[in-house]
């Protein structure tokens, strides 16, 4: 069970940056600045805990929508599912108390900082 939970968490972390790419593209198109680079010292424990919790919920949402994508009849239906999934994931992030930019920045930092990844994994397990 623990290994399965960790897999879901890691998948969510990797997905977090990928799924939010469309949000980043929308921000670029609207003139909103892109996510900035930060290091682990820039994040509070509260933010990391929020990220861990949101990532776990995003993993569940992702799994649900992946199943819907698999059964979508055509490209238009797939796009509708993708859009709905993205909106749901943004909602999860915002409900966690983080904004999408901060969530994405933490996700990127985790991918580049094994120590930060361990810290967030421990928070996810507790």
From TrEMBL:
UniProt domain DUF4168: residue ranges: 44-120
Q: Give the superkingdom in one word.
A: Bacteria
Q: Which UniProt keywords apply?
A: Signal
User: Which Pfam families does the entry mention?
Assistant: DUF4168
Q: Where is the signal peptide?
A: 1-26
Q: Quote the protein name from its UniProt record.
A: DUF4168 domain-containing protein
């Amino acid at each position: 069970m623990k290994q399965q939970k960790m897999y879901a968490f890691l998948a969510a972390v990797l997905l977090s940056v990928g799924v939010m790419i469309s949000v980043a593209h929308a921000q670029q198109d609207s003139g909103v600045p892109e996510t900035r680079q930060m290091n682990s010292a820039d994040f509070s424990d509260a933010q990391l805990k929020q990220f861990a919790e949101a990532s776990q919920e995003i993993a569940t949402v992702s799994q649900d929508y992946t199943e819907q994508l698999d059964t979508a009849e055509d490209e238009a239906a797939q796009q509708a599912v993708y859009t709905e999934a993205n909106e749901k994931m943004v909602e999860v992030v915002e409900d966690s108390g983080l904004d999408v930019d901060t969530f994405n920045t933490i996700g990127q930092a985790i991918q580049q900082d094994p120590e930060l990844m361990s810290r967030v994994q421990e928070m996810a397990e507790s």
